Amino acid sequence: MVLEEYNLDRQKALISLYPHQPLRGQSALVTGANSGIGEGCARHLAAAGAAVAVNYVRNPEAAQKIVDDINQSGGKAIAVIADVASEEQVMSMFLTAVAAFGTLDIVVPNAGLQQDSKIEKMTVSQWDLVMNVNLRGQFLCIREAINEFERRGMHDVSKALGKIVCMSSVHEVIPWAGHANYAASKGGVMLMMKSIAQEVSDRKIRVNSIAPGAIATPINRPAWDTVDAESKLLDLIPYNRVGLPDDIGQACVWLASDASDYVVGTTLFVDGGMTLCEGFASGG
Ligand code: BGC
Question: In 37, 48, 143, 218, which residue has its Cα 20 to 30 A from 247's Cα atom?
């Protein structure tokens, strides 16, 4: 399949999805927002009215392009560099975003990567890199988000003190041979998210996750960019289409908005039914 690139015209078109601007007056930080699912979330949050900090670690041009599209379509955005695995860089990213927007209302710890290997061959650096970005990175961002929500206190833009939308994966529940580090990191995100939600929800902080299925992004390009690969992938997806960053962006806006005010500590699967175990569709 061919993935339609985002550009200024598409950014303007996204705004029409959110005529009531549910996130107006709020500000958001999305990590790993210069491509893929993070980009989709950043663009949709901006289209729904939020000011958005677009985090990146490499490829500043891609981050700047997203920021320019958002600013030129009447929104507000900045680009912020940080490696989410670094405590120091995460803290300075939060300082930058808060200095620019006054506070943060929505944090989307999204940055993630894969380092695939058969388990006998998996190196410690492959294990550590995935854990450090996918799990430690989310922990650091969640901690800083909660500290900022509490520092700022309640204001009248939302019923909640703050909203955190973690980016998990269907692999928080589906085991994935050849990807033990990645599946372990997402399984970790699931219980980290739920434990933190349990800990902070009485302070009016809502913590939830999105578990995307196969979304066409750079992380899994070989799985969808040829006809053969796409048709093999569709065998795993009851809804029979590959997901798009827009699918996740729209879910992210909902989880960040007051429309989901009673949704706490849950994982929203946005996967075209991948977790329904398509292999059993004919009775198993
Ligand atoms: C992975 C993708 C994969 C999808 C479904 C995601 O979390 O990053 O590579 O295509 O799960 O298996």
Answer: 143
